[in-house]
Amino acid sequence: FTERGTLTFGRSSLSLFGPLDGLLRAEVALPTPGQLVAPAFRGVSALVAHGRRVVSYPLLQARGQRKAPSEFATFPEEIRALAGGERTALVGHGKTFVLLDVLGRPRRSHTYPSPVAALAYRPGVSARLLVATRDGVLHRYDERGSPSGVPVETKLSSVVALSATAELAALADATRVALVDLGTGRVVDRIDLGASQEQLRSLALSARGEALVAGFQSGLVLRFNVRSLDPTPVLSPSSSWADQRGRHAGPVTWVSAEFGRPLSADASGAIFEWDPKTGRALHGLRTPFRLSRVVLAGEGRVATLSPELLVRVWDLASEREVLRLPT
After folding, report:
1. For the chain, which ranges sit under pLDDT 50?
2. What is the pLDDT of residues 252-291, one digit of tens each?
3. CA-based angle 228:209:205, to the nearest 5?
4. At residue 259, what are phi and psi to the nearest 5 degrees?
5. With left for phi above 0 and alpha for psi between -120 and 50, is residue 59 left, alpha or beta?
6. In the prediction, which pLDDT does 236 show?
């Protein structure tokens, strides 16, 4: 989602839909499948990683004109992480992070002892660029790519997820989460889930940083109060509600911590909204589709992308599909 609308990414196309009316604004065919996509430059372009190449696809075009995609940048190794900023693009390949300008020209690059695992761009703050390397180190940079404080050693291994707000960042490996104060660069707390034999798959901080939601391989979802780090199990794979709605059958591939109520989804098509106090399922639906991607679409609504390249917006309270957008 960008300020200009909803960007969808399929195996062979990109589509941009209007933010209010849901009408198709732009559609771009991909000559070869891409593995990563990032809206960039205030939604004017979409950057797509094709192996070692990044291609820029224009989304906003004057009437009667059709701009062709352009080669944005090429790297010596396959691209593993990609993010777009207001005037910059962030690329991680191998053990190197590269910051590029709007024309794809390298502005700064940094090489680390460990491969780049995840990137984040945070508008409106001094340390806008975050780079997490697989060995659990968090690097902070300003808009120009200059270091903003010393690297933060979290003591994690094989980082799988990164989520950030204006003040906090959460990094996770398969069994542990580290919370980092981005102002001071200190690890303010850790969550160790090793004793539970759970494998973490997804992670999300709320916008104000007061809650963290984690999804696991087994179907478990946990909500943590960040100030006290008291976990609330909002779903246990062994739980059995009377209506059988409150249970994920497989790995939790997406979670959200926004609007005060955790949301979660799995690849089989199940989406749930949870009461953070009781752990009960407030609303749930089992879509008849396998889900490739889930994104928050407002309070009580989610947008899903299915393998047949249809975007659907669902209202969780009514358990109804309220909008369908073919890509």
Report:
1. 1, 4, 236-246, 327
2. 888 888 777 788 888 778 888 888 777 777 887 777 777 7
3. 100
4. 60, 20
5. alpha
6. 44
% pLDDT > 90, the chain: 24
Say which residue the tokens 């739980």 belong to: 239
Amino acid at 213: V
Rounded Cα distance, 143 and 43, in Å: 18
Coil, strand, or helix at residue 242? coil
Secondary element (H or E) of residue 9: strand 6-9
- Using the Cα atoms of residue 123, residue 274, residue 36 and residue 174 in order, give the sign of their dihedral: positive
Mean of pLDDT over the chain: 78
Distance, in Å, from the CA atom of 102 to the CA atom of 253, rounded to the nearest integer, reads: 32
User: What pLDDT does 12 receive?
Assistant: 56
Angstrom distance (rounded) from CA 116 to CA 158: 10
Which residue, among 108, 107, 153, has the nearest Cα to 132 in the 3D structure?
153
Q: Confirm if 276 and 256 have CB atoms less than 8 A apart.
A: no
Main-chain dihedrals φ then ψ at residue 195, nearest 5 degrees: -65, -20
pLDDT of residue 94: 95
Helices (H), the chain: none
DSSP E strands: which ranges in 147-206?
152-153, 161-164, 168-172, 176-181, 186-192, 200-205
* pLDDT score at 243: 32
| Distance (Å) of CA 232 to CA 4, 198, 222, 255, 261 | 36, 15, 6, 15, 12
Q: How far apart are CA 79 and CA 61, in angstroms?
A: 28
Q: Report, in this order, helix, strand and coil percent for the chain, each rounded to 5.
A: 0, 50, 45
pLDDT of residue 15: 61
What is the C-alpha separation between 24 and 326, in angstroms, rounded?
9
Token readout for 124 is 């409106």
The two tokens of residue 22 are 């849901």
